[in-house]
Structure formats: C-alpha cells, structure tokens
Amino acid sequence: MTRQDYANRDGIDKRIAQVHEDLRDGTLQPLRKAVEYVDAHFDQTLTLEMLAGKAKLSVSRLAHLFKEHTKTTLIEYLTWVRIRHAQRLLAETDLSCLKIAEEVGYNNQSYFSRAFKRVAKTSPRHFRNHGKVGKVGGKHK
Known about the structure:
mainly alpha; Arc Repressor Mutant, subunit A; 70% helix; 0% strand
C-alpha cells in the first residue's frame, strides 16, 4: 500500500473510532445500539427508520442526537463502515468491484464507486492496484 492509501484507510478508522468514543457516555445507549447495529449489519439495506426502531427513538430524534454527539450523520457513519470493509476486500481478495459493492451493502456499483472515491479520496480500482498487500479469493464477511 502506498503511504496515501494507508493515510486514507487510517482516516476512516479514526473517524469510526471517534464515533465510538463520542458515544461512550452511559446516557447515549440508544445511539450506541444504532451504531452497533450498523457495525453488525452494514452489508444489508439499512434505513434511518430501521435504526431508529433499534434505538427506540423517532427518526428525527435519532438523527438529531447522533449529529449532536458525533458531529456527523448516521448515514455518513454507515458509509465509512462500508468503505472500510470494501478497502479490506479490495486489498485482500480478487473479488470484482461489483461483488465487493454487493458484499458491503451497495446495490449499485456506480453509487459504490462514487461513495468510495468521496470517502477514500481514490477510486476502488486505484486503491486495489496500489494498495494490495496479499489477496485471497472467495467470499468474506
């Protein structure tokens, strides 16, 4: 991996870790439930309505509290988690970009590529070509 690829991956990891840190307060248990659900089910179709149900909050209350305590949105957090997993699959497997998009919860490869580039500051193809450290085939989850 190039230095820039590591920096971008580390940046995503730091952002995800910061959200977990921001939600350590015991009074934020409903928000932690939503984050834990995202962490475990990022590869599925997730909606704010579904996450609000898991947190036992209204959609607007969940969105407001999450933004207030983490300075980001829950959907952006979901994107970070998905892209972090996509980076691992790109670096470690020969799976196609389409298959990786599906594995991390995207139904549309074009949307996945745009999200990846926005978050990782490079395309999935460039990340794979310049960031591979040892690939293995097959399905990963």
